[in-house]
Amino acid sequence: MERMANPVVDAFTSLMAYGTDSLNRARQGMEVFESDLDTSIADTPFEVVFEIDRVKLKHYRSQTRKKAFQRPLLVVYALINRETMLDLQPGRSVLEIFLESGLDVYMVDWGYPTRKDQHLTIDDHVNGYMDKIVDFVLAKEELPTLNLMGICMGGTFSTMYAALHPEKINSLITTVTPTNFDTNDGFLHSWMKELDVDKLIGAWGNMPADVMNLGFLLLNPARLMLDKYNNFARNMGDRDFVENFVRMEKWIFDSPDVPGATFRQFITDCYQQNLLIQNKMVLGGETVDLRNITMPLLNIYGKKDHLVPPEACNRLISAVGSRDARDLCINTGHIGIYVSSRSQKEFAPEIIQWLADRESGRGFRHGHRPPEMPKAG
């Protein structure tokens, strides 16, 4: 005889099974936690070749026998979080893929601002630190130009730099880079438009990393807090999962403060007035005119990026002077674009191929436009 359904009994049975399963996972988790975990990040060897104030320049040399690229790639990360995101671990490292391809990499380490840095502006970073770093690399490599790659806020800085110093840049790569701030797609842009940045900087001097991290968590608390740690609880018996989880947590909470004057200017000039895409931003008394960017441009962004949505990125190529300008939208998020399995198959290899094409002459050359296509009819 078929048993009558009893929702109370069924619910209790499920609860007991869940409790037993949770206990087993907790035991497995304890075994993992008591083992010798490898949670180190950014282990790729480098040499610090240049220092100025808190800022360092790291040089990563490709160990391949034949160098495939004449010019090195200079990578400029954001002032928020750390450039170690590109080198979380072997097998999940954008930097590793670059080096294995025969590409030498220089990477800016912005360091940790202190109270004395609070008056540094965007101009100090772009026309000061970045320009000195570019000049150093060009002199060291005995080259007239280099390839420049910017990430997030560092991509915004790199866009400004390429517009102000186009003669020093062979090609520009922007990744998850906000250049159009007139969008309500995502809470961050809406919040920044209403932010009283003068009160914040007046109270703290620099923008504290802990406050920024809290703000990022509040953009999507269900996913970034509840789902995240619930997923950890379900997988804490998996050693590889735990090691990767801890690596990511170490990166997230290794967050420098942002110099106060730079943070204020980024919010007011970019988020609140959207000056950059309108060619109205001024640095060091000079207007940042995006039409001066005539070098090849690859603009990469994430379709699921909740911090820098596609609408914040996809107007750049129509604003620059280059005719060799391409958008690449990848079906991932702000961080996943660098560390997910998709990044290993698509993101870094696309950059390498794009640079190789221009090195070999298969792409349009700096400052030149392709021939006009014949009109139909």
TrEMBL record:
Keyword Phosphoprotein annotated: no
Coiled-coil annotated spans: none
Acyltransferase is among the record's keywords: yes
Annotated GO biological process: poly-hydroxybutyrate biosynthetic process
One example GO MF annotation: acyltransferase activity
Protein name listed in UniProt: Poly(3-hydroxyalkanoate) polymerase subunit PhaC
Assigned keywords, A-Z: Acyltransferase, PHB biosynthesis, Transferase
Domain AB hydrolase-1: 87-322
Pathway: Biopolymer metabolism; poly-(R)-3-hydroxybutanoate biosynthesis
